[in-house]
Amino acid sequence: MKPVEVKNVNFAYEKDRVLEDINFSLNKDDFLAIIGPNGGGKSTLLKLILGIIKPSSGEIKIFGKSPEKNYLKLGYVPQDTNINKSFPIKVMDVVLQGRLGLSKKFWGFGKEDRKICLEALEKVGAEAYKDKRIGDLSGGQRQRVFIARALATDADILVLDEPTASIDSKGQISLYATLKELNKDKCIITVSHDVNVVLGFVKKVAYVNKSIYIHDSPAQNKSEILKDFSLSDDHVCPVELMVNEQMCLHQESKK
Fold this sequence. Notes:
- The chain is of the alpha/beta class.
- Helices cover 33% and strands 22% of the residues.
- The longest helix has 16 residues.
């Protein structure tokens, strides 16, 4: 049974059609990057997968069930934008939030919950921060903590909304390398604008701009995409177009 199946999905806010005829599925070992222009429907697609909103038509299945009925299979990592950095909460307490509703204790958290959370922090290389205040960490460190919180739910699918938006290029590479390691056990979906970085780590790329164009096996070496890049009358792939544009901009910036 596939972790994610999206079939004939359409979505509109009142009369504003945002997504049209979206179809794709993911396997347990997939690592998907969703790219595309602002306003193209990337965040809407993420909300549909999470079950926050429902399709206007079509269906989404998470391991064969609707997202609302299988939400515990989904671990969500939001953008690092809305956190109150002055709020006095420690890292371990943030990660323990992932155990809410899962703890076997009637009140509070037990030793097993703390063990699971510490293991989650270790998996993302953030165990050294467990006693620090979340607001004292850098953007990259906080995102590792939020990923650990998602792992603490024991979810099979990690869904990340622009996890490197507030992180420098070195931190982006480090974080995606961590996600690639986690991909050995988890299906991962991430929205990203960091095309130059993310292509080195993911297994699939979906370009979303109302419709969806998906590469089942995007090149780990971006030069492979350039080698096969072509503009013909019958095939213009937005994924290839975007990668080519990003690579040209990257090369220009190095001159």
